[in-house]
Design goal:
Length: 210
């Protein structure tokens, strides 16, 4: 199948992301951020995520929480659109985005963190919970722990220890259980166990397909 000009451009953009990651792992943060910026400016959702995180933390650039939030928000919007695409009739870029599903879900989680901490935007418990829950339902273990915390503390949502146990169990099933959380395995919370197993299986199946 012949690669179209548009597909080739998108694959070239991903090359900037890959180079940026390589530079980042070598500790060459300025070069890494430069590559992420190029990819972000060209519309790469993953480039937007990584450039946004670079701006938030000041990795190889001057920290700018407001601009970081803008890029993370764009990345999350693209992530939601990309993850909702049908698996049928994929272009090469669609397949590439699916292979990077974890990073796209991370964009949604990081947007939740922005609202949770008030980084670059007004702090909002309810909005933070909203994005954490989307990322949690898409299989992100850190987001699952955050949703568990929100339900347990009544943070941005109504307090519900049964739902808290459910999401904490989902995170634990991925090896991200929290110390001191043995209470979630009490028999009175077993009613959520089957739901947890079902959601964990769906997450694993989705990851295997990507």
């Amino acid at each position: 199948m012949t690669t179209t000009t548009s597909e080739k451009k998108k694959i070239d953009i991903d090359h900037h992301v890959q180079k940026g990651i390589e530079y980042h792992e070598l500790g060459a943060l300025e070069q890494a951020t430069h590559q992420f910026r190029i990819a972000a400016k060209e519309g790469s959702p993953i480039g937007m995520l990584l450039y946004g995180l670079s701006l938030r933390h000041g990795w190889g650039c001057r920290a700018n929480s407001t601009l970081a939030f803008q890029y993370l928000q764009k990345a999350a919007e693209h992530a939601v659109d990309g993850l909702q695409k049908s698996s049928e009739g994929k272009t090469k870029m669609d397949a590439l985005l699916q292979s990077r599903k974890g990073e796209l879900v991370l964009a949604i989680y990081e947007l939740g963190v922005s609202f949770d901490q008030g980084w670059g935007t007004a702090r909002s418990r309810e909005t933070a919970f909203y994005y954490f829950k989307i990322a949690a339902q898409l299989g992100d273990a850190d987001a699952q722990n955050e949703v568990g915390r929100c339900y347990y503390d009544g943070y941005g949502t109504k307090k519900d220890v049964y739902q808290a146990a459910k999401y904490y169990r989902l995170a634990a099933a991925q090896g991200r259980g929290l110390m001191g959380n043995s209470w979630i395995y009490k028999s009175k919370y077993d009613s959520v166990a089957s739901t947890v197993d079902d959601e964990h299986d769906k997450s694993s199946s989705s990851s295997n397909k990507s």
